[in-house]
């Protein structure tokens, strides 16, 4: 396999192999010696730049000795990949999926579209906590989700983060999650994050024409070497896709979102106005944030 043909599965498997080697305290050269292979082979396996066989992965993991459950999860990759594969996470947030984290941390560019909630990479702790509890998780599991999501978000705080564009539908921004104070903080966080290097946040207004993005959220990830990957997240599973025809379809959806979304400046103004609406005291128990705030009407 050439480096240009790196598949998402190889990249995810390689990241898992490296994680368990480091967890076991091995240097790459030590593991290569134990496997009776060259250090370069171990390097290629961990970077996903050489197709990893199930036998090689099993031998590798046998020396690193992760729990059997994790061995089974990694080897399952070899039984289910034809351009699509499904990762189960139950009702917990998808952040716990090591494959997703590996794909994000090695990406050179990320495009995310969300219709119902703020993207995970942009959520504040209070927003994540409230979302997890409202999804049915216990307070303890909700706190675990907050910790894992915070670790995942470190991606955007790197000195050279991936070029990231987030398209967020107006519905997601008007959906109250947690307290008014939490929503105010979340919206201001989007304003500030959208000013960071290499990060674009664009609001997709409800007044925009119908578009294919209405079919559901997605996150696409591109790499300097290897196939792009599209991540489709649902309530209990995450589907990772690297088939070329599917990736092309989501590129087309992205191009359309670029035409219907507010530009960056308009989006920041809109978010700031919405944040100020949440900052105002509630006048009545059934009061909601005004869906027709002047700025929104003017720009949308």
TrEMBL record:
<dbReference type="InterPro" id="IPR043917">
    <property type="entry name" value="DUF5753"/>
</dbReference>
<dbReference type="InterPro" id="IPR010982">
    <property type="entry name" value="Lambda_DNA-bd_dom_sf"/>
</dbReference>
<dbReference type="GO" id="GO:0003677">
    <property type="term" value="F:DNA binding"/>
</dbReference>
<dbReference type="InterPro" id="IPR001387">
    <property type="entry name" value="Cro/C1-type_HTH"/>
</dbReference>
<dbReference type="Pfam" id="PF19054">
    <property type="entry name" value="DUF5753"/>
</dbReference>
<feature type="compositionally biased region" description="Basic and acidic residues">
    <location>
        <begin position="278"/>
        <end position="290"/>
    </location>
</feature>
<protein>
    <submittedName>
        <fullName>Helix-turn-helix protein</fullName>
    </submittedName>
</protein>
<feature type="domain" description="HTH cro/C1-type">
    <location>
        <begin position="17"/>
        <end position="53"/>
    </location>
</feature>
<feature type="region of interest" description="Disordered">
    <location>
        <begin position="278"/>
        <end position="300"/>
    </location>
</feature>
<dbReference type="Pfam" id="PF13560">
    <property type="entry name" value="HTH_31"/>
</dbReference>
